[in-house]
Here is the input.
Amino acid sequence: MKLNDEIKGYWEGEADIYSRAIWKELTGPQCEEWKKIILKYAPKKEPMEILDAGCGPGFFPVILGREGHRVTGIDITENMIARAKENVERYGQHAVLKTMDCQELQFPDNTFDMVISRNITWTLDDPQKAYLEWKRVLKPGGRMLVFDGCWYLHLYDEKLKRQYEENEKRILKKYGRKIHTHADPEKGDELSRQFFMSDKQRPVWDLEYLIEAGFSVVFAEPDISDKVWDEMEKDINGLTPVFLVGAEK
Here is the structure.
């Protein structure tokens, strides 16, 4: 089985967990913080045509739809798109939602003002190809915003691994859960060892590649955790802060 097929099969089983997680975000203060940081870096155009690459259960389509932007959300997993449709409807918004591989986009060149993604690039078997595709569908002057973390770097860094294991024990005792809550944690760890991004120092790797890919401007915020996580999320995931990396076509 190809890695991309394994990835798709795995995330089909994660849709319900991730959908429940965004319900909390959509009703909490983090929702406003996500909106602020996105619009800070977004092109100054209203309304924008936005592609959410790897939209999962629909967090960005909801919060950006509320601002009047036209959002197209794609995900390789049918179950994620099904949850996204439910959540967009639940929160009274509208978005175009399609099952599609974000590494092989079915859109013409120069279609979108902004491409945005959250917690998807670390799972891709060919993120370089994805970045080139995202650049292709951006309009001139359009921007790409990528939010992610070095979620499994501890598998390749002994010092970080020791810190991670100690934190895991503390989190299990404090919250009765592990750091990562997946439907199939063993399969998740197995796949994560194969992911291209797992051993990369990010966002440094992304910045270097985006320059190589020909973007006119690149930028990053190495840690936006204080802005978009609640106290529990910061406690659990403090070793792997959320970063923003962006680029302009």
Observations:
- The beta strands are 49-53, 70-75, 96-99, 112-118, 138-148, 217-221, 243-248.
- DSSP finds eleven helices and seven strands in the chain.
- The radius of gyration is 17 Å.
